[in-house]
């Protein structure tokens, strides 16, 4: 799924995401909605993802890739964060890990989230990676960045509009 985080659909050349609704096609059927089982059948027949989307939504639909995702979650900075790194991106991760720690107290606290990636940040990252099934490296790569962001959004309930 991480490989597709920045992939979205567009309609008729508009440069914004198209909300492609779907239904299961069994319990719920909607005209012009992607069908879960119907799309599975098309895939088994050799249709590509784009061909399946066009089957349901017409020739105006396309697949796009966002170079950068803005807002929450913050977009991956494009480089790995590791011990010795010093940046606003490090501070973002430190603050998010400390917030996640409220729900996952096994993650060590980062006592001074000042944007300097020290041993305490590396320890928190390693524990986070272990808890969430990522390779335990102590560095924040693309997959770790977005997993931290995902868990942060969940524990802070940002998807529900709680921005506190």
Specify Rg, calculated over alpha carbons: 20 Å
- Counted by DSSP, the helix tally is 5
Strand order of the largest sheet: 1-4
Distance between the termini: 28 Å
- Uncertain segments of ≥5 residues (pLDDT<50)? 159-164
Largest sheet: 2 strands, antiparallel
Please tell me the overall pLDDT: 83
**Portion of residues in helices?**
25-40%
Q: Could you tell me the number of beta strands?
A: 4
Principal-axis shape equals elongated
Content of β-strand: 5-15%
| Class by alpha and beta content | mainly alpha
How are helices and strands ordered from N to C?
EEEHHEHHH
Please describe the structure with a list of short key phrases separated by commas or semicolons.
164 residues; mainly alpha; two-stranded parallel ribbon; 5 helices; 4 strands; disordered C terminus
What does this structure look like?
The C terminus is likely disordered. It is elongated, with a radius of gyration of 20 Å. Helices cover 37% and strands 9% of the residues. Helix 3 packs across helix 5. A two-stranded antiparallel sheet has the order 1-4. The chain is built from 5 helices and 4 strands; from the N terminus they run βββααβααα. It is mainly alpha-helical.
């Amino acid at each position: 799924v991480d490989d597709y985080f920045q992939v979205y659909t567009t309609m008729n050349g508009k440069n914004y995401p198209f909300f492609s609704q779907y239904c299961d096609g069994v319990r719920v059927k909607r005209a012009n909605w992607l069908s879960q089982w119907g799309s599975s059948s098309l895939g088994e027949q050799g249709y590509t993802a784009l061909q399946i989307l066009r089957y349901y939504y017409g020739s105006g639909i396309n697949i796009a890739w966002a170079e950068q995702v803005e807002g929450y979650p913050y977009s991956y900075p494009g480089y790995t964060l590791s011990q010795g790194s010093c940046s606003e991106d490090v501070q973002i991760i430190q603050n998010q890990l400390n917030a996640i720690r409220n729900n996952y107290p096994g993650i060590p606290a980062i006592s001074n989230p000042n944007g300097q990636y020290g041993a305490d940040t590396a320890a928190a990252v390693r524990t986070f990676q272990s808890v969430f099934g990522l390779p335990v490296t102590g560095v924040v790569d693309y997959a770790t960045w977005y997993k931290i962001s995902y868990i942060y959004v969940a524990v802070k309930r940002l998807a529900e509009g709680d921005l506190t």
